[in-house]
Amino acid sequence: MSYISLGDQDKKEMLERIGASSLEELYCCLPDEVRLKRRLALPEAMPEADLLRRFEDLAARNTYPGYLSFLGAGVYRHFVPAVVDYLSARGEFITPYTPYQPEVSQGTLQIIFEYQTLICQLTGMDIANASLYDGAMAAAEAVLMANRLNARPKILVARSAHPEYRATIRTYIRNLGVRIEEVGFGPDGRLDPAELARRIDKDTSAVLVQSPNAFGVVEDLKAVGELAHGHQALFIAAVAEAASLGLLEAPGAFGADVACGEGQSFGLAPSFGGPYLGFMACKKEHLRQLPGRITGQTKDVDGRRGFVLTLSTREQHIRREKATSNICTNQAWCALRATMYLETLGAEGLREMALQNVHKARYAAGVLGRIAGVKRRFGGPVFNEFVLELPKDVAAVNARLKEKGVIGGLDLRPFYPELGPCALFCVTEVHTREEIDRLAALLEEALR
Amino acid sequence: MTREPLIFDISEAGKRAYRLPSLDVPGTEDALAGVPVRAGIPGFPRVSEVEVVRHFTRLSQQNYCVDIGFYPLGSCTMKYNPKINEKVAALAGFTASHPLAPADTVQGDLEVLRLLEEYLCEIAGLDACTLQPAAGAQGELTGMMLVRACLEERGDPRKYVLVPDSAHGTNPSSAHLCGYTVKEIKSNEGGTIDLEDLARQMTGDVAALMVTNPNTLGVFEYDIVRIAEIVHAMGGFLYMDGANMNALAGKCRPGDMGVDVLHINLHKTFSTPHGGGGPGSGPVAVKRVLEPYLPVPRVAGTAGARTLDYDRPRSIGRVKSFYGNFGVILKALAYIWSLGPDGLKEMAEIAVLNANYIRKSLDKLYHLKYTTPTLHECVFSDKIQKEHGISNLDIAKRLIDYGVHPPTMSFPLIVHGALMIEPTETESKRDLDQFIEAMTRIAREAETDPELLHAAPHATVVRRLDETGAARNPVLKWEGKAPQ
User: Are A136 and B318 a contacting pair at CB < 8 A?
Assistant: First the structure.
């Protein structure tokens, strides 16, 4: 199938009008030395039925969905109401391009405007952009934004922030003369305020802290914000588990200059790592340095309310190398799903969902923590993830659990070798009490 | 059609569209001890399920899209998005996969990544590929970081990157983000790279030339082999922006032209939908010499025993979480399997046929600044219509009245008042003829009834919007219900 809509007669007539004798003639501008003189070495064309079978075979080789899993670490399983799948699958949402022509794109533009509003409400910030690639890239863009605002050479990043976020920031700044320093964590699993106080100075552009952090622990954003602002550094609050915003105090309430993070929890499937949704919001005085697309409200010639992409003088297609970012395409359809998800859950649904995460995680931490030899690694309060220190090697324990159909907590050793045998467990509203109890029984057995 | 209210304006206490199962664990009092809990979220919506469904269904009706009709947005461009691809990407075995799952439980996913990498290498004539970049612009950044990492290892990252004046804005922007100063290369009379200017500017402190081929005029850089020689002779790298690979697949390969590093926009060549502005996907393919620097992790191992290799000390690191926009990657793989080698070549040829048909049909009515033969797109300007006070904006807006999405406007920058038209291979002759007919009528209307064009579009849910006002007094979120 090549999805061509021309018949034989069509092609003949079209070539005639062009004045060419063959399709090949249209490639006269291709020098002979670069022409490919063989067929591409690819599998032969597959009819739809064969194609589907091939993909079903591949999907079946993913045994993961058959397990009871307690993995989180930046990617969360939450219940997605049916209306989200139903509505987001409409061709009018999947198959438009970026809304460059506002008169025929009011659907997409209004949804982005609602999305920006929801992100501002959730983060407690003044303005938000139309989305970035994912949480890690949003964190990197936040760091670049801070550097544009104050041109200081040093970025302080909490070591308790997601390892892939830290890695992405490191890649983004590697050629820009900015250096990154990590600030360690204390026994409560939170950023160590004493170390932050020691390291922060007049060269510090920004302090980035993630809450809930990579251990599931809710950080003391107030303390971090005060230290950052005490040195005129920008305070960047990252959020890897956006569901927490339904319950926890917003970053804006602690004076964050930039709030950024991952919106996957808002109606997006884990889908082996993407597509997800980077969100970014800031104080209004930083508007001109905010990267990415932004939608604004305006009026048409008849005075009717309408929406347009705006403030494009920040962007690459106008400013080229002087743009705030090189981003062009973002994750609009993912932002649309998030908008549908949030508007469906509504104020009560979102809060109750977040609250159930807290209760279930606390319950799980309780029953697992009572197993002989198992202890909570950190004392700080958690949202829906927690770290347990096991008396045995985590990989070996997880292998035993897997034999019983359970994917246990994420082994933290590759990410935090300093921690010893620790695993990060995630429990959300989709886990039942029976499943949590099953994990506890199997873990106890595996440790025996 | 009336304007759909903002969801916030129809929100009211007591309404809801979702209910959770009851909590089956004890809701302990101390669960929230030590956690700063918010009082509520002012303004957050409260609506019913039927209101949600109607809200979004009505909004969907205010969108133009490829499923409705012709979308000749040159350079960006949307071809038809096959529906089987959506079905494939929605298979539960894929969507439920956690990216940190043990490798032996996600062998299907890892095989998908491996297969698409292999196929893109074959199509591009290059040796290795990463699927991690989330969109073309991130692919550019990644590609330029690979170049820089390699040059750094040789002892000198160099200072400059050359970019033709016809390039996409992301090229200079990505090079800048990579720590380079951008120098512009002039286009010659034919719209291609001026070899003399290139030879003069391609010095020992230039890291790379970023070339789009075919370029944004739709013109193939006939001297591409010579260009590569000039760049390589000075120890630089040839970067190719593969936005227009849809004109070349199966006909020629960037690697065979001397290209060292290439990014590909999956939506444009491999039919993945654009979703109203993403998600995209911007894989980067490279020659062997740049492979050590590709982002981590790399898919390794053999079929059935695939692993992820993080032990890559010379890698630039990662540019985002995990392994790329996997859902998009699935759709591109489905497309390549659907078409096969002959279908991909036919795709390119028919895209070129359709573009040339439009060009030939309109070249007496609209000004063509560059008359060089073109491949998959053609760039007219409003020069003739300007005599009647009609701009490319007027023409674009009037096209909407004829039921067609306007072409790309005012790009490339080297064509003043540009109308950049790219039909893609999926359009029927009937659709092309309707477009040609609309453009023909508009050319006539420009002479006879310019006011009609200035006032266009006429039949849309809103008419021309005040974009200047939007930027001058930004209203970027809902600011509360208007007083009754």
Answer: yes
The set of residues, in sequence order, having a beta carbon less than 8 Å from that of B156 and lying 6+ positions away, is none
Q: Which of A24, A328, A424 has the most B C-beta neighbours within 10 Å, making it the best mutation to test the interface with B? A: A328
Element (H, E) at B450: helix B450-454
pTM of the predicted protein model:
0.98
pLDDT at B403 over 80: yes
How far apart, in Å, do the first and last CA atoms of chain A sit? Answer: 57
CATH superfamily of A64-79+347-447: Aspartate Aminotransferase, domain 1 (3.90.1150.10)
Question: Is residue B298 scored above 90 in pLDDT?
Answer: yes
Q: Rounded CA gap, B94 and A227, in Å?
A: 44
> Chains A, B: CB contacts under 8 A, how many?
683
pLDDT at B1: 58
* φ and ψ of A234, to 5 deg: -80, 150
Q: What is the DSSP letter of A132?
A: B
The CATH class of the B84-338 domain is: alpha beta
Contact A118 B44 (CB under 8 A): yes
**For residue B279, cis peptide bond before it (omega within 30 degrees of 0):** yes
Q: What is the DSSP string of A152-184?
A: -SEEEEETTS-HHHHHHHHHHHTTTT-EEEEE-
Over the Cα atoms of chain A, what is R_g?
Answer: 25
Q: In this structure, which topology does domain B341-469 adopt according to CATH?
A: Aspartate Aminotransferase, domain 1 (3.90.1150)
Per-residue pLDDT tens digits for B51-98? 999 999 999 999 999 999 999 999 887 899 999 999 999 999 999 999
Residue B342 CB-density burial (10 A; 0-12 exposed, 13-18 middle, 19+ buried): middle
Report the residue from A11, A102, A358 with minimal CB separation from B465.
A102
- What distance in Å separates residue B443's CA from the closest CA in chain A? 20
Element (H, E) at B86: helix B83-89
Contacts of residue B171, Cβ cutoff 8 Å, sequence gap at least 6: B140, B163, B210, B212, B241
Listed by start position, the domains of chain B span 84-338, 341-469
How far, in Å, CA of B224 to CA of A29, rounded? 11
| pLDDT tens figures, A73-129 | 999 999 999 999 999 999 999 999 999 999 999 999 999 999 999 999 999 999 999
Q: Which of residues 29-58 of A touch B (CB under 8 A)?
A: 29-31, 33-36, 39-46, 48, 51-52, 54-58
CA distance B48 to B204: 65
Q: What percent of chain A has pLDDT over 90?
A: 96
* B352 and B359 Cβ atoms separated by less than 8 Å: no
* Tokens 């795709």 sit on residue: B347
Best residue in B68, B98, B309 for a mutation probing chain A (most A CBs within 10 Å): B98
Distance from CA of A201 to the nearest CA of B (A): 25
Write down the pLDDT at residue B484: 52
A215, two tokens: 């251990």
User: Interface pTM (ipTM) of the complex?
Assistant: 0.98
> Alpha-carbon distance B194 to B209, whole Å?
13
| Pairwise CA distance, residues B381 & B415, whole Å | 7
Q: In whole angstroms, give the CA distance from residue B267 to residue B244.
A: 11
Interatomic CA distance for residues B148 and B115, integer angstroms: 28
* Angstrom distance (rounded) from CA B235 to CA B233: 6
From A128, A117, A103, select the one nearest A307 (Cα to Cα).
Answer: A103
Residue A377 carries which DSSP code? Answer: S
Inter-chain CB proximity B317 and A334 less than 8 Å: no
Residue of A nearest to B268 (CA): A97
* Residue A168 to residue B68, Cβ atoms within 8 A: no
Residue range A82-340 forms a domain whose CATH class is: alpha beta
Among partner residues B62, B108, B125, which is closest to A58 by beta-carbon distance? Answer: B108
Q: CATH 3.40.640.10 occupies which residues in chain A?
A: 82-340
